[in-house]
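Notes from hallway chat w/ T.B., transcribed later so I don't forget. T.B. wanted the structure written out for a chain they're using in a teaching module, and asked if we could keep both sequence and structure tokens in one place. Agreed to drop them here.
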Amino acid sequence: MNPGMKLSFTGADTSRWVLGLTRATILFLFLFVLAQPLSIAGAEIAFAAMGLCWVARLAMVRRGMLQSSPLDGFILVFWSLCGLSAALAPLPASSWEGMRKIALIFLVLVVAHNVPHPKRTRQLLAVLFLAGLVSVGYSALQYAGGVGVRVVACDPDGPAYQVGIRAGDVILNAGGRGLRSPETFLAVLRDTPPSNGLRLTVVQDALSSELILPKDAVRMVLPSRAASQSPTLETVGMTLAVARPPRARGFYSHFITYSDEMQMLMAVAFGFWLSFRRQPRFPAFWFAILALTFGLTLGATLSRSAWLAGTLGLLVQLWFYTRRTSIRLLLPVVLVFALLGTNAAVRHWRGVGLIDSHDPSTEYRLLMWRDGLQLIHQYPWFGVGQNTIRDDWPRFNFAAYRLQGVRSHFHSTPVQFAVEMGLPVLLAWIAFMAAYWKMLARMAREAREHPDPALYGLSLGILGATTGFLANSLVQYNFGDSVVVLLFWFLMGLALATRNHIASR
């Protein structure tokens, strides 16, 4: 708590309870930061516990506990309009379920009121960077060691083909043992008694979906005749190779989620590098390493929108950092080269262009946006309701669903908000984000002259992370991804706390 806060106690017991709740709130805040890049369940549980402890403390000590911010009114209006839309939705149960994600916005207030000094900010960021590096290390291990064995070819007359295995499948484990190479598979096969079948866990057609997830695996059993006295891959009828993740995803279930995470961590580290690079001390080197590490991992996600959004975020930071007009004039040129480089890179690694009408994901977006605009015209005020399309999808007859057989969201935060909750919610969200970005820009200017370079670095970093996240939200529904939006709200809470630190010097 702030040293200047005045607490009103009714006795020693109340004082002990308040102290205990304060410590518990801070403990769960650190646990939340540690878990955020590693476990969505852990992060949400820590957030819930932190929120409960903070609210309980507020109930005991009311005076001097809350501080207003320029975003309070925007948060209240946005949340209220979302709640009104849910109350009027045709499937209220589905829409109120969607309000759980909207309610994550209150993480902003919890964080903002529990970071009373810059030292705690630095501690939280150190934990966040450490957890982010753990996820990067896990991604590197997945690629280096493999996540299973890939079926390169499968003989139609062999036993593997007969049980349903095809070329392009990935075998995650055999006989309960994780696989990392064809040799491991043969070793398990040789250890299997000929009288027993070999149980396999297989992700079918894994590489075409660019994801290899255990939750998508099916169980198969190789017949006992495949386990001869000296089994070989030829007797099983397969050609195998090490299976590596096509795109980095860390501990998350999707590479798009991970790309947003890496983009924001890279931007924050880059902001600190800018602020410390002219300091006589050593930290600038480590922040450069951090930014480069997160940037390379972002590249490994092969997410073209996140690449460009991250680049835009870095260029915005440079715009606010430099005072040289010549450098500012070069920044748009750098963005053009980034567009050209991204187009060449995705053509090389993914076989599609930056904007490619033959790309199924691009086609899916365009079809969904077209149908989404029609729904906005039909339901402009309160939308069709959150999760209504998910739970009652046959009613809408989307062209993308018919043509591609995939049921998903609109892949755009503005379109998703307008379709599900109406134009008033969309306008409230735009006003909210505009006010937040304007506050960050003002903070970056004010923090430049602050004696603590960390406050300037964090101001630049959050500005860049927010810019990248909002840019990516135009073509991704990242506000509906509770994994990554938790980091966005956490950084917003840190921004509000940092604003107070800058003003109190």
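Follow-up for T.B.: Residues 72-142+250-503 form one domain. Might be a good example for the class.
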